[in-house]
Amino acid sequence: MKNTLYDRLGGAEVIRKLANDIAENHLANPLIKTRFEVVENMDKVKEMVFEFICAGTGGPQTYTGKDMLSAHKGMNVSEQEFIAVVDDILAAMDQNNIGETEKNEMLVIAYSLKGEIIRV
Ligand code: HEM
User: Fold this and answer.
1) Which atom of ligand 1 is nearest to the CA of 65?
2) What is the number of alpha carbons within 13 Å of residue 112 lying toward its C-beta?
3) In the CATH hierarchy, which fold is given to the domain comprising 5-113?
4) Is 70 exceeded by the pLDDT of residue 1?
5) Percentage above 70 pLDDT, the chain
């Protein structure tokens, strides 16, 4: 399929930068930084976020990580933390000069996952 969100984001190269910038934003965000400071292998998480975005936006990559429920189960993620993560994703998209249409589509995808992440 042409014109997938994956292609409009700029494909693997831009999504790789997005995944790294999202992680950096999280580590600088006072609302959620402690969640990520304790993660032992952030490179692995970044790789999984890269695959997750690629696969979820129509790219050819396969997501090899945990499903969202398993990945966040027992963390007791709050609504505020969820919004902070979404804000960091949108900020990373701004940092990479991605357009409003694509940001809106990403927002819808992120929001649709809230039931698998908040207080699970
Ligand atoms: C739209 C929202 C979110 C998405 C798409 C998302 C996506 C992911 C993905 C793909 C992973 C890697 C899973 C794996 O290793 O197999 C992950 C791990 C993780 N997520 Fe999220 N996440 C979201 C929201 C959140 C929130 C709100 C928090 C808490 C503030 C959070 C904290 C974490 C942490 C700490 C890990 C690493 C767990 C570990 O390996 O120790 N996530 N997330």
Assistant:
1) 16
2) 7
3) Globin-like (1.10.490)
4) no
5) 98
pTM above threshold 0.85: yes
36 lines ligand 1 (CB under 6 A): yes
Q: How far apart are CA 61 and CA 57, in angstroms?
A: 10
Of 17, 25, 33, nearest in space to 87 by CA: 25
Closest protein CA for atom 41 of ligand 1: 39
Angle at 54 between CA 51 and CA 56, to 5 degrees: 100
What are the extents of the domains in the chain? 5-113
Q: What is the pLDDT of residues 70-113, one digit of tens each?
A: 999 999 999 999 999 999 999 999 999 999 999 999 999 999 99
Measured in Å, residue 63 CA sits from the centre of ligand 1 at 14
Question: Do 42 and 26 form a contact (C-beta atoms < 8 A)?
Answer: no
